[in-house]
Amino acid sequence: MEKVPMTAQGLEKLQAELKQLKSVERPEIIKAISEAREHGDLSENAEYHSARERQSFIEGRILELEDVTSRAEVIDTSKLGGDTVTFGTVIEVADEDTDEEQTFTIVGPYEADISKGYISTSSPIARAMIGKKVGESVEVTTPRGSKSYEILSIAIM
C-alpha cells in the first residue's frame, strides 16, 4: 500500500472528522432514516431518499478516511532542513511578471487547501519548487499556462 504523507496536524484533523462522522453524524442519519420510514410509502418519501443519500455519502467518507489514516505517514517537519523546498516548508515567492508575492505551505494531498495557501506535493507549483533554494527562479507549467516565480524565503512549518 502506498503511504500518504501528512503532517501531525493534518492527521489529527482527519481523525477528528472520522470520529465526528462515526459518533455523531452516523447515529443522526440512522435516526432520520428511521423517522422517515414511519411516514409511510417510501417510493414517494423525499425525506427518506434524502437521508439515504446522506447516509451513502457519510459511509463513503468514513471508508475513505479509514483508508487514508491507516496509510498515513506522519512527517516531522521540525527535523527537515530549511535551505531547500521540501514537504512541510513554507515558501514565499514572487511572481516574476507582476512582482506579486504569495506564500505557500507544501503539504500532503489530503491537507491541501489553496484558500489557506496549502498546496499538495503533487500540485504543479509544488513539484516545480521542491528541491529549489532561496533566490532561484522556478518555471511552473499549470493548466492556465506558464508562470515564473522567484523563491524569496523558505521556512519550516
From TrEMBL:
Pfam family, one: GreA_GreB
InterPro entries, per database record: GreA/GreB_C_sf (IPR036953), TF_GreA/GreB_CS (IPR018151), Tscrpt_elong_fac_GreA (IPR006359), Tscrpt_elong_fac_GreA/B (IPR028624), Tscrpt_elong_fac_GreA/B_C (IPR001437), Tscrpt_elong_fac_GreA/B_fam (IPR023459), Tscrpt_elong_fac_GreA/B_N (IPR022691), Tscrpt_elong_fac_GreA/B_N_sf (IPR036805)
Biological process per Gene Ontology, one example term: DNA-templated transcription elongation
Entry keyword set: DNA-binding, Elongation factor, Protein biosynthesis, Transcription, Transcription regulation
Transcription elongation factor GreA/GreB C-terminal domain span: 83-154
The organism's place on the tree of life at top rank: Bacteria
Segments forming a coiled coil: none
Record's keyword annotation contains Signal: no
SUPFAM superfamilies (alphabetical): FKBP-like, GreA transcript cleavage protein, N-terminal domain
GO molecular function: DNA binding; RNA polymerase binding; translation elongation factor activity
Residue intervals of the Transcription elongation factor GreA/GreB N-terminal domain: 4-74
Keyword set includes DNA-binding: yes
Membership in a protein family: Belongs to the GreA/GreB family.
Function: Necessary for efficient RNA polymerase transcription elongation past template-encoded arresting sites. The arresting sites in DNA have the property of trapping a certain fraction of elongating RNA polymerases that pass through, resulting in locked ternary complexes. Cleavage of the nascent transcript by cleavage factors such as GreA or GreB allows the resumption of elongation from the new 3'terminus. GreA releases sequences of 2 to 3 nucleotides.
Protein name: Transcription elongation factor GreA
Species assigned in the record: Nisaea acidiphila
Lineage: Bacteria, Pseudomonadati, Pseudomonadota, Alphaproteobacteria, Rhodospirillales
